[in-house]
Design goal:
39% of the residues lie in helices and 17% in strands. With 365 residues, it is an alpha/beta fold. The strands form two sheets. Strands 1-2-7-8-9-10-11-12 form an eight-stranded parallel beta barrel, surrounded by six helices. A three-stranded antiparallel β-sheet has the order 4-5-6, with no helix packed on it. Helix 7 links the parallel strand 9 (175-182) and strand 10 (203-210). It starts with 19 loop residues before the first strand and ends in an 11-residue tail after the last helix.
Length: 365
Protein backbone atom coordinates (compact mmCIF):
# COMPACT_ATOMS: atom_id res chain seq x y z
CA UNK A 1 0.00 0.00 0.00
CA UNK A 2 1.34 3.42 -0.95
CA UNK A 3 1.73 5.42 2.25
CA UNK A 4 2.15 8.74 0.45
CA UNK A 5 -0.96 10.83 -0.03
CA UNK A 6 -1.15 13.20 -2.98
CA UNK A 7 -1.99 16.78 -2.04
CA UNK A 8 -2.13 19.88 -4.17
CA UNK A 9 0.20 22.31 -2.32
CA UNK A 10 -1.51 25.02 -0.28
CA UNK A 11 -0.03 28.41 -1.26
CA UNK A 12 1.73 30.54 1.35
CA UNK A 13 -1.16 33.00 1.71
CA UNK A 14 -3.89 30.40 1.21
CA UNK A 15 -5.67 28.07 3.59
CA UNK A 16 -6.26 24.33 3.67
CA UNK A 17 -9.97 23.43 3.72
CA UNK A 18 -9.23 20.15 5.47
CA UNK A 19 -10.69 19.77 8.94
CA UNK A 20 -12.75 22.93 8.55
CA UNK A 21 -16.42 23.67 9.24
CA UNK A 22 -17.25 26.80 7.25
CA UNK A 23 -19.92 29.37 6.50
CA UNK A 24 -21.57 28.91 3.11
CA UNK A 25 -21.76 31.72 0.56
CA UNK A 26 -25.22 33.27 0.93
CA UNK A 27 -26.73 36.35 -0.66
CA UNK A 28 -27.60 38.87 2.08
CA UNK A 29 -26.72 36.42 4.86
CA UNK A 30 -23.04 36.42 3.89
CA UNK A 31 -22.30 40.12 4.34
CA UNK A 32 -19.54 41.31 6.68
CA UNK A 33 -21.40 41.31 10.05
CA UNK A 34 -22.78 37.82 9.43
CA UNK A 35 -19.31 36.55 8.57
CA UNK A 36 -17.77 38.10 11.67
CA UNK A 37 -20.57 36.68 13.79
CA UNK A 38 -19.96 33.19 12.37
CA UNK A 39 -16.26 33.53 13.17
CA UNK A 40 -17.16 34.68 16.68
CA UNK A 41 -19.10 31.46 17.21
CA UNK A 42 -16.37 29.23 15.84
CA UNK A 43 -16.58 29.03 12.05
CA UNK A 44 -13.16 28.06 10.74
CA UNK A 45 -13.59 29.89 7.44
CA UNK A 46 -16.25 32.14 5.91
CA UNK A 47 -17.36 32.48 2.30
CA UNK A 48 -18.64 35.88 1.23
CA UNK A 49 -21.77 36.16 -0.92
CA UNK A 50 -21.40 35.47 -4.63
CA UNK A 51 -20.12 38.67 -6.23
CA UNK A 52 -20.36 39.03 -9.99
CA UNK A 53 -17.02 39.73 -11.64
CA UNK A 54 -18.34 42.58 -13.80
CA UNK A 55 -19.78 44.34 -10.75
CA UNK A 56 -16.32 44.39 -9.16
CA UNK A 57 -14.47 45.59 -12.24
CA UNK A 58 -14.31 49.39 -12.17
CA UNK A 59 -15.02 49.76 -8.47
CA UNK A 60 -13.21 52.22 -6.25
CA UNK A 61 -11.22 50.66 -3.42
CA UNK A 62 -10.75 52.59 -0.21
CA UNK A 63 -9.92 51.97 3.42
CA UNK A 64 -12.76 53.13 5.65
CA UNK A 65 -11.27 54.94 8.68
CA UNK A 66 -14.47 54.57 10.70
CA UNK A 67 -15.09 50.84 10.28
CA UNK A 68 -11.48 49.80 9.52
CA UNK A 69 -12.82 47.96 6.49
CA UNK A 70 -11.75 47.82 2.88
CA UNK A 71 -14.67 48.94 0.75
CA UNK A 72 -15.22 48.40 -2.96
CA UNK A 73 -17.78 50.93 -4.18
CA UNK A 74 -19.21 52.47 -7.30
CA UNK A 75 -21.43 55.45 -7.98
CA UNK A 76 -24.93 54.37 -9.06
CA UNK A 77 -25.79 55.04 -12.70
CA UNK A 78 -29.51 55.29 -11.92
CA UNK A 79 -30.35 58.96 -12.36
CA UNK A 80 -32.88 58.91 -9.53
CA UNK A 81 -30.11 57.97 -7.12
CA UNK A 82 -27.48 60.38 -8.40
CA UNK A 83 -29.42 63.64 -8.39
CA UNK A 84 -27.79 66.37 -6.37
CA UNK A 85 -24.19 66.87 -5.35
CA UNK A 86 -24.00 64.12 -2.73
CA UNK A 87 -24.70 60.92 -4.61
CA UNK A 88 -24.26 58.01 -2.22
CA UNK A 89 -21.91 55.33 -3.46
CA UNK A 90 -23.10 51.72 -3.56
CA UNK A 91 -21.09 49.11 -1.70
CA UNK A 92 -20.23 46.17 -3.92
CA UNK A 93 -18.04 44.36 -1.41
CA UNK A 94 -16.71 45.04 2.06
CA UNK A 95 -14.18 43.09 4.07
CA UNK A 96 -12.38 43.54 7.37
CA UNK A 97 -8.67 42.79 6.91
CA UNK A 98 -7.86 42.55 10.62
CA UNK A 99 -10.82 40.39 11.66
CA UNK A 100 -11.40 38.04 8.73
CA UNK A 101 -8.90 38.43 5.90
CA UNK A 102 -6.94 35.19 6.38
CA UNK A 103 -10.17 33.26 6.91
CA UNK A 104 -12.22 34.82 4.12
CA UNK A 105 -12.94 33.16 0.79
CA UNK A 106 -14.17 35.48 -1.96
CA UNK A 107 -16.77 33.76 -4.12
CA UNK A 108 -17.02 35.03 -7.66
CA UNK A 109 -19.80 34.72 -10.17
CA UNK A 110 -18.36 34.56 -13.66
CA UNK A 111 -18.68 33.12 -17.15
CA UNK A 112 -15.35 34.30 -18.52
CA UNK A 113 -11.72 33.52 -17.67
CA UNK A 114 -10.59 37.07 -18.45
CA UNK A 115 -13.18 38.93 -16.37
CA UNK A 116 -12.83 36.39 -13.55
CA UNK A 117 -9.11 37.08 -13.40
CA UNK A 118 -9.55 40.86 -13.64
CA UNK A 119 -12.06 40.93 -10.77
CA UNK A 120 -10.23 38.41 -8.59
CA UNK A 121 -7.02 40.42 -8.73
CA UNK A 122 -8.80 43.30 -7.00
CA UNK A 123 -9.44 41.34 -3.81
CA UNK A 124 -6.70 38.71 -3.96
CA UNK A 125 -4.29 40.60 -1.65
CA UNK A 126 -6.89 40.64 1.10
CA UNK A 127 -8.42 37.14 1.09
CA UNK A 128 -7.29 33.56 1.65
CA UNK A 129 -8.83 32.23 -1.52
CA UNK A 130 -11.04 32.73 -4.57
CA UNK A 131 -13.97 30.37 -5.10
CA UNK A 132 -15.90 30.07 -8.36
CA UNK A 133 -19.66 29.68 -8.05
CA UNK A 134 -20.64 26.88 -10.40
CA UNK A 135 -23.77 25.82 -8.55
CA UNK A 136 -26.23 28.68 -8.20
CA UNK A 137 -29.46 27.63 -9.97
CA UNK A 138 -31.15 31.03 -9.93
CA UNK A 139 -31.97 32.67 -13.29
CA UNK A 140 -30.03 35.87 -12.57
CA UNK A 141 -26.92 33.70 -12.50
CA UNK A 142 -27.62 31.00 -15.07
CA UNK A 143 -29.04 33.40 -17.67
CA UNK A 144 -25.62 35.02 -17.88
CA UNK A 145 -23.86 31.70 -18.26
CA UNK A 146 -22.74 31.72 -14.63
CA UNK A 147 -23.48 29.49 -11.65
CA UNK A 148 -25.04 26.12 -12.46
CA UNK A 149 -24.94 26.92 -16.18
CA UNK A 150 -21.21 26.24 -16.03
CA UNK A 151 -21.89 22.62 -15.09
CA UNK A 152 -23.10 22.04 -18.64
CA UNK A 153 -19.81 23.38 -20.04
CA UNK A 154 -17.09 21.47 -18.16
CA UNK A 155 -14.28 22.53 -20.49
CA UNK A 156 -15.21 26.19 -20.18
CA UNK A 157 -15.46 25.93 -16.39
CA UNK A 158 -12.07 24.23 -16.31
CA UNK A 159 -10.61 27.07 -18.41
CA UNK A 160 -11.87 29.63 -15.89
CA UNK A 161 -10.32 27.72 -13.00
CA UNK A 162 -7.03 27.21 -14.85
CA UNK A 163 -6.79 30.93 -15.62
CA UNK A 164 -7.47 31.84 -11.99
CA UNK A 165 -4.89 29.34 -10.73
CA UNK A 166 -2.21 30.63 -13.09
CA UNK A 167 -2.91 34.37 -13.09
CA UNK A 168 -4.25 34.89 -9.55
CA UNK A 169 -3.46 31.90 -7.35
CA UNK A 170 0.19 31.62 -8.35
CA UNK A 171 0.76 35.38 -8.41
CA UNK A 172 -0.83 36.19 -5.05
CA UNK A 173 -0.06 32.79 -3.50
CA UNK A 174 -3.65 31.98 -2.54
CA UNK A 175 -5.85 28.99 -3.26
CA UNK A 176 -8.46 28.71 -6.00
CA UNK A 177 -11.52 26.51 -5.47
CA UNK A 178 -14.93 25.78 -6.97
CA UNK A 179 -18.41 25.01 -5.68
CA UNK A 180 -20.55 22.69 -7.79
CA UNK A 181 -23.76 20.65 -7.68
CA UNK A 182 -24.49 17.04 -8.53
CA UNK A 183 -25.06 16.20 -12.19
CA UNK A 184 -27.77 13.90 -13.55
CA UNK A 185 -25.73 10.72 -13.07
CA UNK A 186 -22.85 9.63 -10.87
CA UNK A 187 -20.77 9.00 -14.00
CA UNK A 188 -21.20 12.58 -15.18
CA UNK A 189 -20.45 13.95 -11.73
CA UNK A 190 -17.30 11.86 -11.46
CA UNK A 191 -16.05 12.97 -14.86
CA UNK A 192 -16.68 16.61 -13.97
CA UNK A 193 -14.92 16.37 -10.60
CA UNK A 194 -11.87 14.70 -12.17
CA UNK A 195 -11.64 17.39 -14.83
CA UNK A 196 -11.90 20.23 -12.32
CA UNK A 197 -9.40 18.65 -9.95
CA UNK A 198 -6.91 18.66 -12.80
CA UNK A 199 -6.88 22.45 -13.07
CA UNK A 200 -4.70 23.07 -10.01
CA UNK A 201 -7.47 24.01 -7.58
CA UNK A 202 -6.88 23.39 -3.87
CA UNK A 203 -10.52 22.76 -2.92
CA UNK A 204 -13.88 21.62 -4.26
CA UNK A 205 -17.23 22.01 -2.51
CA UNK A 206 -20.04 19.70 -3.52
CA UNK A 207 -23.60 20.87 -2.84
CA UNK A 208 -25.42 17.55 -2.56
CA UNK A 209 -28.37 18.61 -4.69
CA UNK A 210 -28.93 18.73 -8.43
CA UNK A 211 -29.55 22.01 -10.21
CA UNK A 212 -33.38 21.72 -10.29
CA UNK A 213 -33.56 20.94 -6.56
CA UNK A 214 -34.46 23.61 -4.02
CA UNK A 215 -33.25 23.99 -0.42
CA UNK A 216 -36.45 22.46 1.02
CA UNK A 217 -35.69 19.20 -0.79
CA UNK A 218 -33.54 16.79 1.15
CA UNK A 219 -29.87 16.65 0.16
CA UNK A 220 -28.70 13.59 -1.81
CA UNK A 221 -25.58 11.96 -0.42
CA UNK A 222 -25.34 8.76 -2.44
CA UNK A 223 -22.60 10.25 -4.66
CA UNK A 224 -20.69 11.90 -1.84
CA UNK A 225 -18.32 9.02 -1.04
CA UNK A 226 -17.36 8.73 -4.69
CA UNK A 227 -16.69 12.46 -4.93
CA UNK A 228 -14.54 12.53 -1.79
CA UNK A 229 -12.59 9.52 -3.08
CA UNK A 230 -11.89 11.25 -6.40
CA UNK A 231 -10.81 14.46 -4.69
CA UNK A 232 -8.54 12.55 -2.33
CA UNK A 233 -6.94 10.71 -5.23
CA UNK A 234 -6.30 14.03 -6.97
CA UNK A 235 -5.03 15.71 -3.79
CA UNK A 236 -7.85 18.26 -3.64
CA UNK A 237 -9.72 19.04 -0.41
CA UNK A 238 -13.43 18.16 -0.62
CA UNK A 239 -16.02 20.12 1.35
CA UNK A 240 -19.58 18.83 1.62
CA UNK A 241 -22.65 21.09 1.62
CA UNK A 242 -26.36 20.42 2.01
CA UNK A 243 -28.50 19.95 5.14
CA UNK A 244 -25.61 20.31 7.58
CA UNK A 245 -27.21 21.62 10.76
CA UNK A 246 -24.35 22.21 13.20
CA UNK A 247 -20.69 21.49 13.93
CA UNK A 248 -21.36 18.19 15.68
CA UNK A 249 -23.30 16.89 12.69
CA UNK A 250 -20.69 18.30 10.31
CA UNK A 251 -17.89 16.38 12.01
CA UNK A 252 -19.97 13.19 12.06
CA UNK A 253 -20.79 13.49 8.34
CA UNK A 254 -17.16 14.20 7.51
CA UNK A 255 -16.16 10.96 9.21
CA UNK A 256 -18.98 9.00 7.62
CA UNK A 257 -18.37 10.09 4.02
CA UNK A 258 -14.68 10.91 4.11
CA UNK A 259 -15.21 14.61 3.40
CA UNK A 260 -12.38 16.95 4.34
CA UNK A 261 -14.69 19.74 5.47
CA UNK A 262 -18.32 20.73 5.79
CA UNK A 263 -20.28 23.87 4.96
CA UNK A 264 -23.24 25.18 6.97
CA UNK A 265 -25.80 27.38 5.22
CA UNK A 266 -29.42 27.87 6.32
CA UNK A 267 -28.80 26.64 9.87
CA UNK A 268 -26.12 29.32 10.29
CA UNK A 269 -28.41 31.90 8.74
CA UNK A 270 -30.96 31.19 11.49
CA UNK A 271 -28.43 30.87 14.32
CA UNK A 272 -24.67 31.14 13.68
CA UNK A 273 -23.88 29.63 17.07
CA UNK A 274 -24.48 26.38 15.18
CA UNK A 275 -20.72 26.47 14.66
CA UNK A 276 -20.23 25.57 18.33
CA UNK A 277 -20.07 21.97 19.46
CA UNK A 278 -22.41 20.71 22.16
CA UNK A 279 -19.42 20.65 24.51
CA UNK A 280 -18.87 24.34 23.78
CA UNK A 281 -22.49 25.11 24.66
CA UNK A 282 -24.28 24.37 21.40
CA UNK A 283 -26.91 26.81 20.19
CA UNK A 284 -27.15 30.13 22.00
CA UNK A 285 -30.50 31.77 22.69
CA UNK A 286 -31.65 34.06 19.88
CA UNK A 287 -31.39 37.17 22.06
CA UNK A 288 -27.71 36.59 22.82
CA UNK A 289 -26.98 36.04 19.12
CA UNK A 290 -28.92 39.18 18.11
CA UNK A 291 -27.13 41.29 20.70
CA UNK A 292 -23.76 40.14 19.40
CA UNK A 293 -24.87 40.77 15.82
CA UNK A 294 -26.00 44.31 16.60
CA UNK A 295 -22.69 45.07 18.28
CA UNK A 296 -20.84 44.02 15.13
CA UNK A 297 -23.28 45.73 12.75
CA UNK A 298 -22.81 49.15 14.34
CA UNK A 299 -19.05 48.67 14.55
CA UNK A 300 -18.82 48.29 10.78
CA UNK A 301 -21.59 50.70 9.71
CA UNK A 302 -23.48 47.89 8.02
CA UNK A 303 -26.05 48.79 5.38
CA UNK A 304 -29.37 49.24 7.13
CA UNK A 305 -31.35 47.12 4.70
CA UNK A 306 -29.01 44.18 5.23
CA UNK A 307 -29.09 44.55 9.01
CA UNK A 308 -32.87 44.58 9.00
CA UNK A 309 -33.00 41.47 6.81
CA UNK A 310 -30.52 39.59 9.00
CA UNK A 311 -32.44 40.43 12.16
CA UNK A 312 -35.58 39.04 10.52
CA UNK A 313 -33.73 35.73 10.14
CA UNK A 314 -32.31 35.66 13.67
CA UNK A 315 -35.43 36.62 15.66
CA UNK A 316 -38.27 34.07 15.87
CA UNK A 317 -41.13 35.40 13.74
CA UNK A 318 -43.87 34.57 16.22
CA UNK A 319 -42.52 36.86 18.93
CA UNK A 320 -43.91 40.36 19.42
CA UNK A 321 -40.36 41.76 19.46
CA UNK A 322 -39.99 40.52 15.89
CA UNK A 323 -42.61 43.03 14.72
CA UNK A 324 -41.04 45.80 16.80
CA UNK A 325 -37.58 45.20 15.35
CA UNK A 326 -38.58 44.63 11.72
CA UNK A 327 -40.78 47.71 11.91
CA UNK A 328 -37.88 49.91 13.05
CA UNK A 329 -36.55 52.49 10.64
CA UNK A 330 -33.01 52.85 11.98
CA UNK A 331 -30.38 51.48 14.32
CA UNK A 332 -31.50 53.48 17.33
CA UNK A 333 -35.01 52.10 16.91
CA UNK A 334 -33.72 48.52 17.03
CA UNK A 335 -31.49 49.20 20.00
CA UNK A 336 -34.40 50.73 21.91
CA UNK A 337 -36.70 47.83 21.00
CA UNK A 338 -34.12 45.28 22.17
CA UNK A 339 -33.07 47.19 25.26
CA UNK A 340 -29.50 47.67 24.07
CA UNK A 341 -28.89 50.93 25.91
CA UNK A 342 -25.11 50.47 25.78
CA UNK A 343 -25.24 50.66 21.97
CA UNK A 344 -27.61 53.61 21.65
CA UNK A 345 -24.96 56.32 21.38
CA UNK A 346 -23.07 54.37 18.73
CA UNK A 347 -26.33 53.57 16.93
CA UNK A 348 -27.19 57.28 16.64
CA UNK A 349 -23.78 57.97 15.11
CA UNK A 350 -24.26 55.18 12.57
CA UNK A 351 -27.74 56.46 11.71
CA UNK A 352 -26.27 59.89 11.08
CA UNK A 353 -23.51 58.54 8.84
CA UNK A 354 -25.97 56.42 6.87
CA UNK A 355 -28.50 59.22 6.55
CA UNK A 356 -31.19 57.37 8.52
CA UNK A 357 -33.90 59.12 10.48
CA UNK A 358 -37.30 58.18 11.89
CA UNK A 359 -38.97 60.06 9.05
CA UNK A 360 -37.27 58.08 6.28
CA UNK A 361 -38.13 54.70 4.90
CA UNK A 362 -36.13 51.91 6.52
CA UNK A 363 -34.99 50.42 3.25
CA UNK A 364 -33.72 53.66 1.75
CA UNK A 365 -30.10 52.85 2.57
Amino acid sequence: MNSSVKRVPIPKNGVDYRGKVVLAPMVRSGELPSRLLALHYGADLVWGPETIDKSMIGTKKRTNPVSSTIDYTRTPTNSSRTQGSAARESYIYRLHPARESRRLIFQIGTSSPSTAVEAAKLVAPHVAGIDVNAGCPKPFSTSGGMGAALLQKPDHLASILSALVKEVGEVFEIGISVKIRLLETAEKTEALVRKLCGTGITGLTIHCRTTPMRPRERAIRDQLQMITDVCRTEGVACVMNGDVKNRDEALQLMREFGADGAMIASAAEANPSSFRTSEEGGLSAWREVVHEYMKIAVEVDNKWGNTKFTLSQLIPGKLEIYRDVTGSKNYIGVCEALGLEHLCHQAREVDARLGLSTSRDATAV
